[in-house]
Amino acid sequence: MAIWLNASLSYIVFPFHSPLEPSENFREILQNVAKPHGVSNMRKLGHLNNFIKLLCSIGHREENFGFTYEEIIICLRLALLNEAKEVRAAGLRALRYLIRDTSVLQKVLRLQVDYLIARCIDIQQSNEGERTQALRLVRKIITVNAMLFPTSIANSLIAVGTDGLQERDRMVRAAIAIVCELALKNPEVVAKRGGLSTILKSVIDCQLSRINEALITTILHLLNHPRTRQYVRVDVELEQILAPFTDFHYRHNADTAEGQLKEDREARFLSSRMAIVAAFRSWSGIINLCKAGNSGIQSLIGLLCIPNMEVRKGLLEVLYEIFRLPVPIVTQDFTEALLSVDPARFQDTWRLSDGFVAAEAKVILPHRARSRPDLMDNYLAFVLSAFISSGLLEGLVEVVTSSDDQLAVRATILLGDLLHMANTILPHSHSHHLHCLPTLINMAASFDIPQEKRLRASAAVNNLKRFHEKKKKGLKPHSLYLDHIIRKSVSSHNRRDSRVHKDIYVIKDTEEALMMNLRDSQILNHKQNLEWNWLLIATILKWPNVNLRNNKDEQMHKFVRRLLYFYKPSSKLYAGLALDHLKARQLTVVGCQFVEFLMDSDEDGQGYLEDLVKDMVSWLSSSSGMKPERCLQSNGLLTTLSQHYFLFLGTLSAHPQGVKLLEKCGLFQCLLNLCSVKNQDAVLKLAVSTLDYSRDGLARVILSKILTASTDTCRLYATKHLRVLLRAGVEFFSSWGMELLVTQLHDHNKAVSMEALDILDEACEDKANLHALIQLKPAVSHLGDKGLLLLLRFLSIPKGFSYLNERGYVSKQLDKWQKEYNLKYVDQIEEQLNEALTTYRKPVDGDNYVRRSNQRLQRPNVYLPVHLYGQLVHDKTGCHLLEAQSVVPDLSYTIRSPMLDTWEGIKQLKAALWALGNIGSSNWGLNLLQEENVIPDILALAQHCEVLSVRGTCVYVLGVITKTKQGCEVLKQFGWDAVRHSRRTLWPVTPDEVDTQLTSELSSVPSTLSLNSESTSSRHNSESESQPNMYILDDDKCDVLDQSDETSLYLHSKPVKDRSPFTILASTRFVRTRFLNSLSLPSKKLRSTSDPKTPSGSRTPTELKTGSMRRNRTVTEPSVYIRTAGCPEHSYRGGWT
Questions:
Q1: Which of 720, 728, 842, 1031 could form a disulfide with 489 if both were Cys (CB 3.0 to 4.6 A apart)?
Q2: Alpha carbon distances (Å) from 347 to 320, 357, 654, 862
Q3: Residue 897 and residue 301: Cα distance in Å, rounded?
Q4: Residue-wise pLDDT tens digits, 746-764
Q5: Euclidean distance between CA atoms 591 and 541, whole angstroms
Q6: pTM flag (> 0.90)
Q7: What is the torsional sign of CA 729, 730, 732, 738?
Q8: How far apart are CA 290 and CA 1132, in angstroms?
Q9: What are phi and psi of 1045, to 5 degrees?
C-alpha cells in the first residue's frame, strides 16, 4: 500500500498549490473519482489523497467547497465500490477527514454509507490496509457521536470479534477493542446486537492480563451505573467468567480436538483466573459476585470441597492473587514453601548493581505512617469478610485434609495468611471464623475419620503453629548492610558500650577456658583459614572482660595477628572469597566483631587497627578511579567479599575513636575525591549505606557531597537512602536529614526531586520532622500539585498555620480547593487505587501515554493523600475558618442532592464525600459534621446509592471519620461496629470483657468537643494523638500484653507513643447471619441498620455499653494504626472504581 501511495503522489493531476479556486479543484477531484470509466485507479488514488490535502488547507467551510456535503459524500461513496482495495482504502480515509461533526455524520448515515463501511470490514482477502482504514473511520464515528452509531457496522464488528479467532482474522482484537469502546459510549446498540456476550467470550479467549482486564472492566463499568446496568444479565453473562472452574466438562470451542483439550483447558483456567481477580478489584464486580443467594463467590468456594485437584490448584492461585499474597513454590516441604513467600527473602533488586539497601529497606522497614489510613486495608477487609462469610476457611480446611501434599502445603499457608489478615483488619464481631481451627484440631485428634485425613490435619496444625511463630518474629533484614544500619540506630539511643555491662559477669576459670577456646579454634596452629572454628573465634572476640588491654599473653597477640592477616585486603584471603560463599556471612560478622574488639583494646589494639584501616584505604585508592586503568567493578567488588570492607569501616564510623582513626588514615578524603570521579557508583553506594550518621561529622559531609556532586544515579540512591535512615530511626534525623531532603527538592533531575518529596511526605508523619520542615521554609511551587500537598501539611500545627496564613496562602487555597482541587483530589485517589489494584501505571513526566504492566504490585499501600480541610481541622482556628466559609453546609447539600445522571455530577459527589471525610478526621471537624447532621446521609449513600462506586467512596470516607474515638462513638449509634489495634501488632488480642475500672474511666471522657472551648490545644485533634476508644487500653497498661522478642528490635527502633486508632466498621446487629446474605442491587429495597430517629451524639459510651447491642472489646498495643471501614451486612463489599 505504501508503494501505491508513493506512486500516486508522483502522478497527480495538478500540483497541490494550484492557481485554481478551491471549488474548481474540488470539482476536478470529484469528477475524476466519480467517473466509472476513463480514469485509472492510480489517478483516482492520487485525487483522493489530494482531496484530503485540499480539505485540510481550506478548512471545513461548506461555502468554500462549491458543493454540498451530500454531493461530496455521494461522489466519495463511489470510491468504496471500486474493485481496487487501495482506492477503497483511500475513500474511507477521505470520509474520515470529512466527518468533523454530528451534522456531517448524519448526512453520511442518511446516504447509507455505513453499509459500504461494513462491507469493507467483512471482506477478508489480503486487504488489511482497507480494513484498517475502515476501523479508523469507525472510531472516528464513535468519537464524533457514538449515539448515532449504525447497527450495520456494529453487526460486522461483533461478527469479527465472535468468530475471528477461528478464522485466524488478524483484526479480531482491534474489532473487540472498538466494541468495548462503543459499549462505554453507546451500550444499547452493543447489547441489542449481542456484543456484551462477545466481549465476555473474548475474556475467556484472552490470556494477556492487560487485555483481559480491559475486557472484563468494560462489563463491570456498565454494571456500575443504573442506567447501563439494565443491559447486562448478571446471573447469566457476568458469571460466564467462572465457567472454566464451575463446569468440569467445559469446552470453550466445540471443534477443539481431543488431543488439545488439556492445553485448551489450562488456557481457559488462566483467562478465567485473570477475569475473576479483575472483577474482585471493582465495586460492581464484588457486589454482583457476592450477592445473596446462589452467588458466584459461593460457587467458587463450594468447588474447594470437590476433590478435583486441577480445579483446586487453580482456585488457590485465584485466592492468592485476590488477597495480594505471593504464591508459594510447588513443593511438599512446608518450610521450603514458607521461605519462598517470605517478604525478607533475597530479591534481585537488592543487589549492589541495582536498588541495594534502599530497595530492601522499603520492603523490610515499615512506613512511618501511624494514623494515616491505608485504603488498601479497607478494600482487603471487605473482600476478606465476604469470602469468610461464604465459608472460605472451612473450604481451605477441606483442601488441606483431602489433597495431595503439594496442594495441602499451599492451602495451609493461605489459611495461615488469611487468619493472620483477619485477626489484623477485621472486627471481633466477624472473627468467629477462627473456630475453623478447633475443627481442624478435632480432625487431627479424631479416630472416626480415615487415618490419612487425620495425619494431614495433624500436620496442618503443626505447620500453622510454625507459621504463627514466623509471623510473631516479624521481618528480619536479609543483608548485613541493613542489619548494620538498624542495629546502630537502635543502639544509638543508648550509647553506653554494652561491654561495660558484661564486665559485671564473673566467669570461673576464665583464663583457662579462654586458652582452651584459643587452642580449639585451631587459629594458632592451622594455616587453612576456612577450616578454623569460626564459631569459637566469634566467642573469643565477644568474651566478657577480655581484650588486649587486659590480656598481655603472647598467644592472644598471635591470635590477633593471624586474624589481621586474614582480613587485610593485601593478603587477598578474605577479599578474594565469593559473595555466595557458604561462610561469607559468618566471616563478615566475625570481621566486624574483630574491629570492635580492637577498638575496645585501646592503645594495645590501636596499632593493629590502624594497620588494617590503612590497608583498606590503600586498597580502595589503588583499586578505584584514582588510577584510570583500574576500577573496583573489574576488581571484583560486585562479586567478592571485598565489598564487605565497607561494613568494617561503617562499624568504625559509629565510634568516636573510630572516626578519628578513619580521618587519620585518609578514608574520608579518599571518598570525597571519589564523589567527582565517574564510574564509581558501586563504591559510593557502599559508602552511603555503611557510614554512621548519628553524630555530626565527616560522615554527614560525605553524604551531603554525594547528594549534590555525584552522578544522577548516585544522587538518586543517596536520596533513597535517606528514607532508610528515616525508617530505621537514626537519631536526630529531624535536625539534619530534613535539611538534606529539602536541598534535594531543587535537584535538576526530576526523579531525585520527586523522590525527596515523597520521603518528606513520609517524614512529616513525625511531628518533630514537620516542625523542622516548617523551620526550613522550603520552596515547593516548582514541584506542582505534589509540592502543594506537602505545604498543606504545615496547616496541621499552629506554627505552620500561622506561617502560611500570614502570607495569605490559606485563603487562596480555600478558594482553589472549592473551585477545582476538590475534584482533582478525587482523580488523585482513584488513580492511586487503580495503580495499586490493576495493571494501570500512571504516565511519567506529563506523558499522555498510559503505561501498563503485566504484573500487579504485591500488597501496595495507598495512604490517604493530604487534603486542605483535613489539615485545617487539626486546629481550632482552622475549624472556625471552615465554619465561617460555610464549607460543611455546602458540601452537605451536594451529599443530600446528588446528581447521579452524569459522570461530572458523580465526581462532584465523591469530592464532597472525601472533603467531609477529611473534615471528620478530627474531633473539632467531627463536631461540624454533627451540627450539620450529615453523617446519616453518608451512611444512606453507603447502603443504597445506585452508583456502586459511590458506595466504595463512602466506605473509605467512613474509615477516615473513625480515626478518632468520637467518630467511632457517633457511628456506633447507627449500628456500625469498630475495633482498633496497632498496624504493627502481629497477633492482636480480643478478649470478651475489659477491666470494669478501665471502662468506667473511658466512659467519663466527653464524647463531644465544643468549638467555643477556651482551650486551643490540638491534643484531641491530632491524628497521632487522638484518644483511643473504649476498646483500647492505655499504652502503659498494654506493655505487658505485647512484649516483643529480640528480633522485633529490627523493626522498632524506639517505643512509639501513638493513640490513633485502627478502625474497622461493621454491623453488629446481624452477627448471626452471613455478611452478605441480604446484599442486593439497588433495584431491591434494602433494610438499613441505621436509625434516623436516634439523635447524633445523644448517647454516652456507658449507655452504649449497657444497651441492647453487646460490644466485644479489643485489648491491644496502640502504637501504629491502620483503619478500615466496613459496612452493615447487607450493603456491599469494597474495592475501587
A1: 728
A2: 20, 11, 28, 23
A3: 40
A4: 999 999 999 999 999 999 9
A5: 10
A6: no
A7: negative
A8: 8
A9: -80, -175
